[in-house]
């Protein structure tokens, strides 16, 4: 992608940006109940292990939508990587700084990263972070992550398989808005954003104590083309 195309894409992402303060407030209120409600994260742990093992120790990795820092930031730091966590929720970040004190955490909206304020990365973990966006924003976000990755950099991406756009769902006593794709369309979107698919897995996941029904989670191991 040329510099002009990149700026145009970032500008488009900025124009699409919505007020997501309500999402942050919901996760602030949820706090450590999130990890209690989602105690088993086999798919996320496997994808995190791929990212941690495919990069040399000491690689700089962005944990996008890091939440409480568990399990991913903790997993990546334990593997010897330099971890930068980023999340919209100040409350979640307070927990993350306790859980993974050696990582560097920042608060902000995803769209703010388009200016490169956190530098570039060897890898990115984006586990269920992009599903919090309206669907028109997701391709822009993927291209932004492509630009933040160094050549050959890796992205571990997960989404819920669902044909929905900015759909309101109940979540631990709050309402959040989510988007998703069916898997063939998701593959097309990531390829159009400049990624090669190095691996894929999926599993059914039922939260332990929420009113959200079981979902199909898709995990993609991606390489910056």
From TrEMBL:
Domain Methyltransferase: 61-153
Protein's UniProt keywords contain Phosphoprotein: no
Signal sequence region: none
Superkingdom: Bacteria
Keyword Nucleus: no
GO molecular function term, any single one: methyltransferase activity
Protein keywords: Methyltransferase, Transferase
Pfam families found in the cross-reference section: Methyltransf_25
InterPro entries given in the database record: Methyltransf_25, SAM-dependent_MTases_sf
GO BP annotations, alphabetical order: antibiotic biosynthetic process; methylation
Name used for this protein in its record: Class I SAM-dependent methyltransferase
Organism: Streptomyces morookaense
Taxon lineage: Bacteria, Bacillati, Actinomycetota, Actinomycetes, Kitasatosporales
